[in-house]
Amino acid sequence: MGATASSGMWKTGESAQEQGLGYVPDAYQVPLRDRPSLFPDTATVPLIDLGGLWKDAVQRSLVIKDIANACCRFGFFQIVNHGICQTVMDEALQAASSFFDSPTDEKMKYMSNDVHKPVRYATSFKDGVDKTQSWRVFLKHYAHPLEHWMGQWPENPPRYREKMGRFCAQARKVTVDLMEAITEGLGLGPSYLTSKMEAGMQVMAVNCYPPCPNPEVALGLPPHCDYTCLTVVLQSSPGLQIMDLDDCTWKSVPKIPGALQVHVGDHLEVLSNGLYKSVYHRAVLNSERTRFSIASLHSLGLDETMEPAEELVGAQGKKYRGSSFRDFLNFLATNDLGEHKSFIDSLKINQ
Ligand code: OGA
Ligand code: NI
């Protein structure tokens, strides 16, 4: 009997994490080399005050430089003064929490394993298929343009659409501002991607990690890079870890009140021709309380190809081939990302 057959027992609706099992079944136990340390080092990731982006040119250029350094060194940073008010963030987390508290039947209306579906509820990474199950429950939904997708989001809890919608719109605005700062920092000018981002995708990954009775043997999310240009994440409590490229160890990301996390995604690595790194990250668990995170994933249009910018290619030539969001969905549908298969590696030329 293969691992797939045993993980089939834990499909969405009946998973260990939804049932609140008091032990971690074998199908969830990650191989020894991938188990999280109980005492990880803390990442010394930059905390960037975005306030300066809208002040004078000197302050703007300082912030842009800080962002550029963070994208090079970590592919990751945290932001404050981002313009999203605390109430909007709190209410989005509340809406997420109430959704996951709904009766199973209600949530199962949205259950799907088809990664191309614009709204879907599922567990693990790819329910029923992952070799090792992840202790996660999630709702994913498209969010841009809001008026196009919102009608397909869950009707219950009653204010889910309103509260989540407000956060989506504001997260989108921050992302557009950040992308402008990033392309400006790359020497491509602030509007290099603006219109393509405007016509692009925003996918929300609303994650719930119930308490895990044995958090050192399982993971909430296996190590992965995000297939995006940029991901902006709001979390209810700590649990995110990133791979430190300098010493190749996992470091935990400190929780800073009011801050959001920003991940460089695969497509920004491609655009920069490898100058910026798509951050390798994972979510760890705890035995005490449920953790929620809301990841706002931003990319270009479904069939829009991202290529290294000509201006950044230089003598070494293009290090990545072009790809679209649809190419990633097709990759996701046929590969187990929990098994260290990464989309960005599949794009690398001559390596
Ligand atoms: C994701 C993700 C991290 C977290 O949804 O892609 O990496 O902290 N989430 O839940
Ligand atoms: Ni991620």
Automatic annotation (TrEMBL):
One of its GO terms (cellular component) is cytoplasm. Pfam families: 2OG-FeII_Oxy, DIOX_N. It is found in: Cytoplasm; Nucleus. Keywords: Cytoplasm, Iron, Metal-binding, Nucleus, Oxidoreductase. The keyword Cell inner membrane does not apply. Residues 197-300 form the Fe2OG dioxygenase domain. Gene3D superfamilies: B-lactam Antibiotic, Isopenicillin N Synthase, Chain. The keyword Lyase does not apply. GO terms for molecular function: metal ion binding; oxidoreductase activity. InterPro entries: DIOX_N (IPR026992), IPNS-like_FE2OG_OXY (IPR044861), IPNS-like_sf (IPR027443), Oxoglu/Fe-dep_dioxygenase_dom (IPR005123), Plant_2OG-oxidoreductases (IPR050295). It comes from the Eukaryota. PROSITE patterns: FE2OG_OXY. Belongs to the iron/ascorbate-dependent oxidoreductase family. This is Fe2OG dioxygenase domain-containing protein.
